[in-house]
Amino acid sequence: MKIEFFHDVICSFCFPMSYRMRQVQKKYPNIEIIHRSFALAWDAEDLNKMFGNRDNAKKEILGHWEHANQNDDLHRFNIEGMKQADFPFPTSKNGLLASKAAKLIGGEEAYWQVFDNIQEALFVNNKDIESMDVIKEAVLDADLNWDEFEKVFHSDEALEAVNEDLKLAYRYGIQGAPFLVINEKYGINGAQPIQVIEETIEKIAVEIHEPLTLIEDGQSCSLDENGTWTCD
Is-annotated flag, keyword Transmembrane helix (predicted)? Predict the structure, then answer.
C-alpha cells in the first residue's frame, strides 16, 4: 500500500498529523509513505493576498494554532511564545525546499526528519523557519551534510520537485493540507484521529486485497482477504 502525505511546514494541523503518520508507519511497516509538498503560502505575497498583511496573518493563524493544539495528541504548540516572537509569520518556500532537498539527498526519511525538525522549530520553539540559520539547524539535526544540502537546496531540481508535487495535488483535486492519498485512489482529508486513519487503511486493504502487515506488542500479524488478522 502506498500513502502520499501532502503537507506544509507552516500547516498547524500537519504537525499532529505527522506524529500520527509516524505511528502508522511503525504499526504497518509494509506501507510506503511518500511525502508531498503542499504550499499554503509560498511567499509573502500569498499571505498578503489572504490576510491583508503579515501582521494580520499572524493574528489569525495563531487562532488556528489554538484548534490545532487541541487536535495534537501531545499538545505541543507554544502559542504564547509565538505571540511574543518579533518576526512575521513565515512562508512555506524555504521549509518546503529544505524538506525536498533533504529527500533528494537522503530519501523519504531524510525529508520527514527535516520536515519534522522545521515544524518543531516553528510550533514549539517559535523560531523563524524562513531563516537559513534555522533551516541549517534542522538539516544538521537530521545528520545531513550542510555543504551538499546547500547545493541541492538552491538547485532547479529541488524547486521542480516541489512544483511537481503541487501539480499532482491539483490533479488529485486537493485543496488543503494535511491530506492523504492512498494508492492514488482513496483520500483522507484533515488531521483525523489515529483510529480513523488505521480503520480506513485496514478497510481499504480488505477491499482491494492488499497485503498488510501489523506489528503490535512484539507480534507480527497479517491481514487476510476476510479482514481477519493472523499473528505469529
Answer: no
Structural domain that includes position 130: 2-231
CATH classification at residue 62: 3.40.30.10
Closest CA relative to residue 227, chosen from 211, 206, 207: 206
3-state secondary structure of 182: strand
Torsion of CA 134, 176, 38, 180, to 10 degrees: 110
Which whole number is the average pLDDT over 187-192?
A: 98
pLDDT (tens digit per residue) in 12-55: 999 999 999 999 999 999 999 999 999 999 999 999 999 999 99
Q: Pseudo-torsion of CA 209, 197, 170, 119, nearest 10°?
A: -140
Q: Where are the alpha helices (DSSP H) in 38-129?
A: 44-51, 54-71, 79-84, 93-123
Residue type (1 letter), 18: S
- Reading the block at residue 184, the C-alpha cell is 492514488
Q: Record the cell numbers describing residue 120, joined without a space.
A: 518543531
Q: What's the number of domains the chain is made of?
A: 1
Cell matching residue 108:
523519504
Nearest 5°: phi and psi at 33?
-105, 125
Cα–Cα distance for residue pair 54/76, rounded to 1 Å: 24
Match 489515529 to its residue by C-alpha cell. Answer: 194
> Cell match 532547479: residue?
156
Instruction: Calculate Rg over the CA atoms of the chain.
Output: 18
pTM (predicted TM-score): 0.94
